[in-house]
């Protein structure tokens, strides 16, 4: 973690004090995950949405879902209910404060607690803070994240008791308008007040594809064969850490021949410097795979809309049909074997 992003002990103290207060209030006794409200960062103006977990008594936590990607990811998971993929949580940008058993903490967590002179005892008593970013392993907070999460917990301490007295406080009004805790400065004093806001429209970062024209032209010269290829791009469950970097989940671009299930190409890609950059490299990697096996198929099948959008221009230039299909039967067994191997 770069020096300028490392939280100071004063910032950590504020966050732990806010977490201890939330544990004392125990808002999960009357709040569900769906009882959300917004918080605006006084530092950046960014939005976060607070959700409380723990009503079932199994895992006590507070998540701050960041920005439009965070809230839309959260609402999508809520909509899917029991059919939601638990792995989906890793793709939603958020900051999380949870209350764990001591052995679940990292040595760095325990070192901060010791430096602060704090003591915790018992199950689900030890505060733990993590940052979630798409395609990256949950990791330790940076300074700005500590400050924003502190604000969110402080505002939860204000909102939760009021919601207990009046459950209409967090009922969406006018369709999708939610309570927003907004900061306002009067001189040197920071004040907070209730406002309302719509769920922001999804504003995902753009994906830029860079590819050499010669590689596109080379595809058109490849021998055309009566074959259908199934293509997938998926996250592997085992995190990788390059020296000095935040651990990440590598993604695999996998190509198989549909009829036989034979693997024709596989490449591992890293989400550094961003997941969008990683996705932008996919068309060129796919073109390289086809060139290596000297094959231009009649048809390409994919089951991800984003992958379809990225490969469609390439397929069109090369005169290859591409389809978006709900399943890839030839590829699924290979993918499951790979996921199991990497999972072990």
Explain this structure.
This protein is α+β, with helices and mostly antiparallel strands. It folds into two domains: 3-198, no CATH class; 213-343, Ribonuclease H-like superfamily/Ribonuclease H (Nucleotidyltransferase, domain 5), CATH 3.30.420. It has nine helices and twelve strands. The protein has helices at residues 9-25, 67-80, 107-116, 143-165, 213-220, 275-280, 282-293, 305-318, 329-343, and strands at residues 37-40, 47-53, 60-66, 94-100, 126-132, 177-186, 189-198, 228-235, 251-257, 263-269, 299-302, 321-324.
Main attributes of the structure:
single chain; 344 residues; alpha+beta; Nucleotidyltransferase, domain 5; 2 domains; 35% helix; 24% strand
Overall number of structural domains: 2
Report, as a whole number of angstroms, the end-to-end distance. Answer: 28 Å
How many helical stretches?
9
How many runs of DSSP E, i.e. beta strands? 12
- Average pLDDT reading: 92
What structural class do the secondary elements suggest?
alpha+beta
Using the CA coordinates, give the radius of gyration: 24 Å
| Spatial strand arrangement across the major sheet | 5-4-3-2-1-6-7
**Biggest pleated-sheet summary:** 7 strands, mixed
- Proportion of residues in extended strands: 15-25%
Shape annotation: elongated
Helix content: 25-40%
Low-confidence stretches: none
What is the string of helix and strand elements? HEEEHEHEHEEHEEEHHEHEH
């Amino acid at each position: 973690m770069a020096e300028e992003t490392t939280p100071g002990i004063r910032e950590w103290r504020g966050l732990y004090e806010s977490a201890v207060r939330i544990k004392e209030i125990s808002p999960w006794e009357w709040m569900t995950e769906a009882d959300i409200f917004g918080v605006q960062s006084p530092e950046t103006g960014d939005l976060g949405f607070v959700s409380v977990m723990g009503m079932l008594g199994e895992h006590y936590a507070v998540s701050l879902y960041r920005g439009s990607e965070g809230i839309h990811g959260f609402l999508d998971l809520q909509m899917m209910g029991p059919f939601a993929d638990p792995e989906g949580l890793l793709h939603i940008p958020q900051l999380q404060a949870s209350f764990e058993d001591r052995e679940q903490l990292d040595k760095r967590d325990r070192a901060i607690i010791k430096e602060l002179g704090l003591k915790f005892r018992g199950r689900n008593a030890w505060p733990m803070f993590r940052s979630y970013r798409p395609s990256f392993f949950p990791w330790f907070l940076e300074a700005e994240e500590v400050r924003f999460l502190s604000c969110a917990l402080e505002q939860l301490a204000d909102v939760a008791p009021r919601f207990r007295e009046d459950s209409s406080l967090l009922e969406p009004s006018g369709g999708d308008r939610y309570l927003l805790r907004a900061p306002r400065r009067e001189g040197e004093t920071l004040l907070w007040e209730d406002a309302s806001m719509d769920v922001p429209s999804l504003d995902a970062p753009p994906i830029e594809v860079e590819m050499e024209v010669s590689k596109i032209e080379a595809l058109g010269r490849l021998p055309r064969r009566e074959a259908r290829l199934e293509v997938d791009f998926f996250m592997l469950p085992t995190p990788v850490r390059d020296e000095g970097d935040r651990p990440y989940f590598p993604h695999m671009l996998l190509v198989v021949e549909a009829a036989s299930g034979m693997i024709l190409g596989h490449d591992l890609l890293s989400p550094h410097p961003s997941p969008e950059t990683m996705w932008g490299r996919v068309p060129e990697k796919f073109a390289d795979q086809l060139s290596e096996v000297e094959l231009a198929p009649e048809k390409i099948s994919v089951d991800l809309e984003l992958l379809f959008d990225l490969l469609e221009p390439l397929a069109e230039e090369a005169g290859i049909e591409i389809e978006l299909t709900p399943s890839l039967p030839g590829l699924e067994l290979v993918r499951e074997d790979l996921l199991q191997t990497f999972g072990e």
